[in-house]
Specification:
By secondary structure, this protein is of the alpha+beta class. It has two domains: 2-75, Glutaredoxin (3-Layer(aba) Sandwich); 85-215, Glutathione S-transferase Yfyf (Class Pi), Chain A, domain 2. It is built from nine helices and four strands, in the order E-H-E-H-E-E-H-H-H-H-H-H-H. A four-stranded mixed sheet has the order 2-1-3-4. Helix 1 links the parallel strand 1 (2-5) and strand 2 (27-30). Helix 4 (85-115) packs parallel to helix 6.
């Protein structure tokens, strides 16, 4: 199987981490997002969405991180994507929530405009308005994650057991550390993220993005409240 990816990509890292933790061998093809390779041929023909990751397995091509995680989990019959109908529905629900709620406001509305120059708005006024809106919404979603999805009783986002939804969610939530957030207001999130960061391959998979984050030290950033 071939994976087009980039180690700084928030959506690539869950797939890379799951594969590493489960001994899945992937032929990794790095697509350089920082030079715009994802907008050029031949990658544009592979994924006209201009996004990574992309998984190729024979004649099958998947272009969405969530779908790739589910496919890989099914391919190895992993309990992290349970076969039980209700348990699987909960995993699907959580991953949809991450994609449609958390990612939109937290990543694209609040974190990315601060850490990636190509996400900066054209004027200071527009940029400030984007961050204000994004921060308010991001903090709302983090409250939902902290108090309702995790709460004091759930070690993981689907309950007692780790699932692929945790892999997917952790990559997004950990972005907050790049802008100086310490999750003090979200103790259940902090506890849960600590468990995910204890995974054997977490540090190696996140080495690139953490190094990039270190290069941003000293720049003015807005953190989560």
């Amino acid at each position: 199987m071939k994976l087009y990816c980039h180690p700084a990509s928030t959506t690539s890292r869950p797939v890379m981490l799951f594969a590493a933790e489960n001994g899945i061998v992937l032929d990794k093809q790095i697509v350089d997002l920082f030079t715009g390779e994802h907008y050029q041929q031949p990658f544009e023909a592979i994924n006209p969405n201009h996004l990574v990751p992309v998984l190729e397995d024979g004649d099958l091509r998947l272009t969405e991180s969530s779908a790739i995680l589910k496919y890989l989990a099914d391919k190895i019959s992993s309990p992290l994507y349970p076969a039980d109908l209700k348990q699987r529905a909960r995993v699907n629900e959580r991953m949809d929530w991450i994609n449609t709620q958390l990612c939109r406001d937290f990543a694209y509305g609040f974190i990315y405009p601060q850490i990636f120059s190509f996400h900066k708005r054209r004027s200071d006024e527009a940029h400030a308005a984007t961050l204000q809106w994004g921060k308010e919404r991001a903090e709302g979603w983090m409250k939902v994650l902290d108090q309702h999805i995790l709460g004091a009783d759930n070690p993981y986002v689907c309950g007692k057991d780790i699932t692929i939804a945790d892999y997917f969610c952790a990559a997004f939530v950990a972005l907050a550390e790049l802008v100086g957030s310490d999750f003090a207001a979200y103790p259940n999130v902090k506890r849960w993220l600590g468990q995910m960061k204890a995974l054997k391959h977490w540090n190696s998979i996140n080495e690139t993005i953490n190094g990039y984050g270190a290069s941003l030290k000293g720049q003015p950033m807005q953190a989560l409240a």
